[in-house]
Write the structure tokens for this entry.
Amino acid sequence: MANFTQLHVSNKSQESQQQISNKDQAAKELARQKVLFGSTLFAVTALSGVFLLITNGCSKGPAKVASQNPPVSVAPNVPPTPAGSSVVVPEETKPGRKHVVQKKAPTATFADPINGISFRYPKTYVLKTGNEPSLDLAGMGPLQMNFTQAGGSTVAAVELPKNSYPGTNFSSAFFGVSVNPELSETECSQFAFPITLHPENEPGTPSKAKIGGHEFSMVEESNSDKSAKDPNMKYYHRYENGNCYEFTMGVSTMASTRDDVKPVNHQQVFKKLEQIMATVKIEEAVVPEVAKQTPHPVVEGGKE
């Protein structure tokens, strides 16, 4: 009996020790978990603080830089220019330069369907038709035709205004058109009074000239002074559609002893006359039966 009691007491003491040991382990585990939780909380708090410092520093950085640097003007957004296109610079960026638009002078068109000839000329010029060029042309007397055979007739003539070259000895200038249906192509290339000023040609030999895409036989003449370097008259012949066409250009000057009057540039005047000649169109002439019903001549775009 005593042995059983002692065994029972011994078992109870072992159970008590086991409970005490379990409690100690639980306490140690709880303490370890608290330490781990505290470490984790500290680490999270530290990281949050660092993140807040970085965020606050970034937000204040640009403001600090902006306060130190002066404001910079921003150019307007200009769309890119396509390749191959020209860049237009505003006029205000070009000091001292003015854009001048040159307007072409209004022109009128003269057309003679019977002789198959037409040309354009500035409206400020004076057009003469019929017998007018044969009476007096630009104060130079009647227009003289330079055909080798009779049968020619004057179609029309245009005079430049007398004030075309102020301050010079310019008096007048004209462009005239004549036609002769009685000449052959060989005869059309010749002139009644050929006086050439080109030294490379023999005296009296016509030259070749090309104006407005057409080739002409040409001679030059100086009526007033045989030793003059610049001609006063030019004659051009062209054979087409069975007709010989003659185009005459003349420049007239006046004598002056005044120092403020300069000699006119003959070449410049002839260039103006050649601009009219460059517009000449030669077409097949109207047959006589149809010519009776065709107005002769026709002027389009003349002065109103």
